[in-house]
Write a structure and sequence with these properties.
Blueprint lengths: L2 H20 L4 E4 L17 E6 L17 E10 L2 H17 L2 E4 L13 E17 L10 E12 L1
Parallel strand pairs: 1-2
Antiparallel strand pairs: 2-3, 3-6, 4-5, 5-6
Length: 158
């Protein structure tokens, strides 16, 4: 499995472990749960947090300089039943990410809870965390009306 996929899975399990520790009422999914037509793929259970990767950036480097660092960006889509629930989940995620970095594990060894994989390195959060509301008209898609997005950037280190 590629390192980038292990990083993706580490972010997913980090968010899942955190939300499972503070509430038992949130569904966490790996990837955006809505199709191109704006309708849920399968049944969307509210509240849900979807963990999705954004573009990975590898900045240009010069010969003889330090090796390039890959910057990873993630979006946590929050789908909620109410405005208060949306805001609470988004604020909790924002504060949690602001206080911590994310350990990256070797998922070639297996997956939790049956396997406790070894740590390869860490995603160091850059402090660029954005929490914003997404406005959706309820007559278009009522299930997605109360929605927020928490974006963050990080780089990988061993």
């Amino acid at each position: 499995m590629q390192l980038s996929r292990k990083i993706d899975l580490s972010v997913y399990y980090y968010v899942k472990d955190y939300l499972d520790s503070v509430t038992d009422q949130v569904t966490i999914v790996d990837g955006y749960p809505v199709g191109y037509d704006g309708q849920p793929e399968g049944e969307l259970v509210l509240p849900t947090v979807a963990v999705e990767r954004r573009p990975i950036k590898i900045p240009a480097f010069q010969l003889g300089g330090p090796s390039p660092t890959a910057y990873y960006a993630y979006t946590l889509d929050v789908f909620a039943k109410t405005k208060a629930q949306r805001d609470d989940l988004a604020y909790m995620l924002q504060v949690e990410l602001d206080d911590n970095n994310i350990a990256v594990y070797n998922y070639d060894e297996g997956f939790p809870p049956t396997v406790d994989p070894t740590q390869l390195g860490a995603l160091i959060l850059t402090g660029d965390i954005e929490n914003r509301v997404v406005y959706v008209f309820p007559d278009v898609t009522p299930l997605l009306y109360w929605r927020a997005v928490v974006d963050f950037n990080a780089y990988y280190t061993t």
